[in-house]
Design a protein that fits this description.
alpha/beta, Rossmann fold, Ubiquitin-like (UB roll), 6-stranded mixed beta sheet, flat
Length: 346
């Protein structure tokens, strides 16, 4: 799973990146105009429990990868080629909004900032659509691609992001092939001062986000970066003193999973216990492809153990003896917490 941290300069993007990843990337005017890359492991007590039972050589948690993308220095400054490429490669966008007084004394206006950044995305998508439609019209192409892109152009022209545009099943592959940035799921992260770190985001911003299918959360990136830099055994006490129940990374992970509608499944054995992510509603062959493309290509069946039944019985052998091991075919819809063993042939 890969998320891009985006937004305008001086909003605290890189400070948030440091808070989420525990890194110490240069912030402010001293940073270079290149992306920062980081990875965090997704904590999961189910993985811990499976690992305690199997005692594998290796335990692997799901990962959330971040790219901290340099933002436009001014509103309307546009998104350059490398920035757009980073956005297209991400599965989700997290736009960081200023919720604190600016260095020039200016009051924060996160709703307008969200509007302005969304406009940058819309403009870039509109340019891509117009260029492609110009060529299709010259070729007198009247198929599903032309129909879909004309609908996209009308939607974008009304100032609406493509993530809010309803699509027919046959239009989905057309849209997916272009990597439109306003189609990406988006989370708005309001970066607030310490005294507002425990407050909910303002209702006006939540409403503005809802109109764009954008979720909203608040963090104090500066404080969270301090917490992330502490030894693990000291973090809990610091969080308690601030009235926070968990670090920003935990809240961000939850929002990211909800935004992308991701679930976890597990593969287990004496060599490795591992968590994998797939989208809710995915069928077994697609989940197998998350492990290895050969497994999806040569998929035969999936052997499924339900997590609660496995924990209740205590071992794979007991699951088999009780007739709880299920054998599922290509149409099986993977559920959160499934323990899967894929049979395949290539």
């Amino acid at each position: 799973m890969k998320a891009a941290l985006v937004g305008y300069a001086q909003t605290g993007k890189t400070t948030l990146f440091n808070a989420l990843t525990g890194q110490a990337a240069t912030t402010g005017a001293g940073r270079q105009d290149k992306p920062n890359l980081g990875v965090i492991k997704v904590p999961d007590p189910r993985v811990d429990k499976l690992s305690a039972i199997y005692k594998p050589k290796k335990t692997v948690y799901a990962e959330l990868r971040f790219v901290d993308v340099p933002g436009p220095r001014t509103k309307g400054g546009g998104l350059d080629g490398p920035t757009l490429q980073s956005l297209r490669e991400a599965e989700a966008l997290a736009v960081v909004l200023r919720g604190f007084e600016g260095s020039d004394g200016s009051e924060p206006n996160p709703v307008r900032e969200l509007d302005d950044f969304e406009a940058e995305l819309l403009i870039n998508d509109q340019i891509v659509v117009e260029k492609r439609l110009e060529r299709l019209h010259k070729e007198h192409a009247l198929g599903i691609e032309t129909e879909t892109l004309e609908a996209c152009l009308a939607w974008l022209s009304e100032g609406r992001p493509l993530r809010t545009m309803p699509l027919r099943v046959e239009q989905e592959p057309v849209i997916a092939s272009y990597g439109f940035v306003s189609r990406r799921p988006m989370l708005a992260v309001l970066n607030v001062p310490e005294e507002k770190s425990t407050q909910q985001p303002p209702s006006g911003l939540v409403q503005a986000g809802a109109a764009r299918s954008v979720e909203v959360m608040s963090v104090c990136a500066a404080i969270e970066a301090e917490i992330a830099a502490l030894p693990v055994h000291e973090q809990g006490e610091f969080l308690d003193s601030l009235g926070l129940s968990e670090p920003a990374s935990a809240r961000f992970i939850r929002h990211a999973y909800a935004l992308l509608d991701y679930i976890s499944f597990f593969t287990v054995g004496p060599d490795e216990v591992r968590a994998w992510t797939t989208r809710r509603g995915d069928r077994a062959p697609h989940a197998a492809g998350r492990v290895h493309s050969d497994m999806e290509r040569g998929f035969i069946r999936a052997e499924v153990m339900k997590l609660d039944e496995f924990f209740a019985l205590g071992s794979e052998q007991r699951v088999k003896e009780q007739g709880k091991l299920r054998v599922e075919g290509k149409n099986y819809v993977v559920e959160d917490g499934d323990i899967l063993n894929f049979r395949f042939n290539v």
